[in-house]
């Protein structure tokens, strides 16, 4: 397995902020909006897939309205304060936008997939690291897993995407699936890593002209993942923020209730909500 080291030590401010945290503190996941998450884990503050655009400043992807369809529920300055690491599953605008590129310190440690190495070089990030398989970072094992952002011709259009698994001593294992449809590979990943928490993008998004080919898990595919999730608690995000997402929090909860899936098994947080792990 190829290991890719991070190039340099964190900044003094990041080191101090990390030292001020309690590594044994309870880990949390906060849904910012869409797929943007802040994960407090093993004493580190990790930002996942930042989209900071204000409401309606990105083109429509579903012919309904401009994106994002809702505002952030907190200031960007609060989101990036005392940040230690950024992880980007892929560089579609709803996972890394121009506002995020401008707001983030270009020296922040950032983990990206191989397909996006040149993108972050051009964006001027001096500590962006391409993760091929996995590595250790500040006592956290980070594994990169490939995902399928659709199928057939749509998959070719959407390009490469990734997910990440976080593991650390005395911490729950978290599987951030990323933009993906339900596949046997994800089922195998769950069996291999046995996550305590699985974070899935359940927006049921569609591409205009290919309405029969989902590019994200919808209600049915989310139920299939739940059936294979073992002991894991599933956290569903990527809903009610983009105009091409057809699965809503309400429709997903309705489907789960019909299949007698407890709200403790399937968590559907609101924007700005923090989930204790």
Q: Give the % helix.
A: 10-25%
Strand order of the largest sheet: 6-5-4-3-2-1-14
Which residues sit in consecutive blocks of at least 5 with pLDDT less than 50? 1-22
- Count of helical regions: 8
Strand content: 15-25%
**Distance between the first and last residues' Cα:** 30 Å
**Average pLDDT score:** 91
CATH architectural designation: 4-Layer Sandwich
What would you report as the Rg, rounded to the nearest angstrom?
A: 18 Å
Major beta-sheet overview: 7 strands, mixed
Topology pattern, helix = H, strand = E: HEEEHEHEHEEEHEEHEHEHEE
List how many beta strands DSSP finds: 14
Q: Superfamily at the CATH H level?
A: Ribonuclease Z/Hydroxyacylglutathione hydrolase-like
Oligomer: single chain
Structural class: alpha/beta
By CATH, the topology is Metallo-beta-lactamase, Chain A
| Domain module tally | 1
